[in-house]
Design brief:
The chain is mainly α.
Length: about 140
């Protein structure tokens, strides 16, 4: 085998290993965030049920502490999500690229952004118009 072929194989293997490690990081971030939120929910229920003011204050302090942990977990999650391979995030890309395009709202006659129209009620005329434009843009890309 030639050294260039061996180097190519090594590059491919390193790339697949990096993809796997990124996914593990993302999975860990999700698990940490979910466990923190679950603990916060449980403490919230205890807080609502508790009648003793001293115990209630202790639970309140625990809730404040867990909220700080959750904020850190959310940052880790966002970081991991940002570094995750963007396999099926095309919809977000289309909204970012063409979201500022203005269309006319059939009901009011005002011009609104495409991304705003896509957030309208699903049965409305403006949503239908925006969805058609969105689908056409999606098909082009």
């Amino acid at each position: 085998m030639k050294t260039s072929k061996i180097q190519q194989i090594i590059k491919e293997e390193v790339h697949t290993m990096l993809e796997a490690s990124i996914s593990k990081r993302f999975q860990k971030a999700v698990e940490t965030l979910q466990s923190g939120m679950l603990k916060q929910q449980q403490l919230g229920k205890k807080f609502m049920v508790e009648k003793n003011p001293a115990k209630k204050e202790k639970i309140k302090q625990a809730l404040i502490a867990i909220r700080k942990v959750i904020k850190k977990a959310e940052l880790d999650y966002e970081s991991a999500l940002y570094n995750e391979p963007a396999g099926e995030l095309e919809e977000t890309d289309i909204r970012k690229t063409h979201g500022d395009k203005r269309i006319e709202n059939p009901k009011t006659g005002n011009k609104i952004k495409l991304r705003t129209a896509l957030k309208a009620k699903k049965g409305s005329k403006v949503y239908g118009t925006a969805r058609k434009i969105y689908n056409n843009l999606k098909d082009e890309d």
